[in-house]
Amino acid sequence: MSGAPTFRHLGDRLVHQGHVWRVAVARFRSPDDEEFERDVVRSPGAVAAVPLYHDVDGIARVVLVRQYRAPYDAMIIEVPAGMRDVPGEPTDVTAARELVEEIGMQAGHLQHLTDMYPSAGMTDSVLTIYLATQLTQVARETHGPEEDHMEVLDLPLAEAIEMVLRGEIRDAKTIIGLLMVERQLGRAQP
Q1: Residue 37 annotated to the active site
Q2: Which of 78, 98, 102, 147 is catalytic?
Q3: What pLDDT digit, counting tens, does each position of 85-104 carry?
Q4: Which of the 8 DSSP states describes residue 167?
Q5: For residue 60, with 0-12 CB atoms within 10 Å meaning exposed, 13-18 middle and 19 or more buried, which class applies?
Q6: Strand partners, 13
Q7: d(Cα 140, Cα 156) in Å, to the nearest integer?
Q8: C-alpha to C-alpha distance for 133 and 115, rounded to whole angstroms
Q9: β-pairing, 8-17 with 74-78?
């Protein structure tokens, strides 16, 4: 992007080190030479996968989870996803691991859909979304109370899209993943 104003990151002051995230007060210099600070949540990023298969009638179906999310104190419907909490692990390996942990499925094929910024104003996290196909059932390997109590939902893709449109699915990665898969399937139709 030629000619764009140049901002410079001058450094971070760590104010909290959590289990996965770090919170920093980051200093920057603007193109006008003004110094300013912003609170930034430093994150290793996350990965999500949209598990898709076609039933015996040829209907496209997705497998989602309904799990407790502490920040909202609510059960949230999502695609399987997880933090990149294993240093150096490739995103596709993380996605495959999360599918087994959360829904007990192994993907024969993972296709990269997109990388997204889940909240560009507060975190440097990048979330990678995959389409998972050629699914086979395996034993679930849950981790933590949220996964131990999550509900696995097997739905027609069209129903999941309607849930997005009605505001029943509000999770950003899930909305983006489902809409991208729907669009991709629509382009594949004759």
Answers
A1: no
A2: 147
A3: 999 999 999 999 999 999 99
A4: T
A5: middle
A6: 25
A7: 22
A8: 19
A9: unpaired
